[in-house]
Amino acid sequence: MAMEAEAAPLRAALGAVSIESPSWAASLPVRLAVAPASGDRPEVVLAVNGTDPATGVDCIGSTAAALSTHVALGLGPADIVITAGTAGGWQRADAAIGDVYVAWPHIACHDRRIELPGFDRFGRGEIPTADLRDLAGELGCRLGIVTTGDSLDESTTDRERILASGAEVKEMEAAAVAWVAQLHGTPVTGVKAITDLVDSPVATATQFTENLAAAAESLQATMVNLIDRLGDQ
Ligand code: SAH
Q: Rounded to an integer, what distance in angstroms lies between the CA atom of residue 62 and that of residue 8?
């Protein structure tokens, strides 16, 4: 997860306890916590990007997300990686604030534009997601392509590329998390709660701030159910 405000309700709901990073990662901002297995619930490692030492804000975005995922997977093998957080949706796709999406059928990037043979596909960075369609339906989640870029706004170029990609969920970390999970040979899924509607006349930052706490709560509730159901399976 990227932001402390997104992660705090889930950490509390899981009763996850902070652990030290391994010594090779001690200087990285990632914050790790572990909730032990109990009943149907499998062990959960919660990795949050942490605070940027230079600016004092949460390390949102793909660079820190890749580091956190690598540190978490370095602790030992995992059955699945879940990139969880908030995201933008679109009125044109019938999204509403508070909707929770499960990433399907892939996660990709919209702001890595490399018009060179082979590198264009590398730039798009499309990674297939675990097939959790049935589970998503049972949990009342929507399904959609998640698209990642390192900016909160949507430039005109982003808009064109996102429209062409068919993506319904816009955020800043999932493709980086998915790439590292794939390098480790670990299946990946994304769970994203909508804080803002990109095609609304209200500024994204205003919507985000207004809806962050409520979205983090719906994210937490869905994540706990999803984790328990995954444990069942
Ligand atoms: N000003 C905010 C920063 C939020 S950045 C603050 O400091 O409180 C947005 C974060 O939420 C990122 O981690 C991203 O993954 C997610 N996000 C939510 N809505 C988004 C959108 N419309 N576009 C991109 N990322 C979004």
A: 20
Distances (CA, A) of 216 to 55, 118, 151, 182, 232: 23, 38, 20, 26, 24
The CATH architecture annotation of domain 4-232 reads: 3-Layer(aba) Sandwich (3.40)
Structure tokens at 133: 């369609």
User: Which pLDDT does position 122 carry in this prediction?
Assistant: 97
Q: Which residue has the tokens 């430039």?
A: 155
The residue whose CA is least distant from atom 6 of ligand 1 is: 209
Domain chopping of the chain, boundaries: 4-232
Active site residue 6: yes
Distance 165 CA to ligand 1 centre (A): 20
Residues 229/77/51/1 CA torsion (nearest 10 deg) = -30
Give residue-wise pLDDT tens across range 191-200.
999 999 999 9
Is 170 close to ligand 1, i.e. is its CB under 6 Å away? yes
Percentage of the chain lying above the pLDDT 90 cut: 98
Residue-level pLDDT at 79? 97
- Alpha-carbon Rg for the chain, nearest whole angstrom, is 17
Sign, CA dihedral 103-109-111-113, equals negative
Q: Which of 151, 152, 191 to mutate to test the pocket of ligand 1 (most atoms within 8 A of CB)?
A: 152
Q: Is 158 in the pocket of ligand 1 (CB under 6 A)?
A: no
73 pLDDT above the threshold of 90:
yes
Residue 79, CA distances (Å) to 108, 153, 231 in order: 21, 34, 10
Label residue 171 by pLDDT band (50, 70, 90): very high
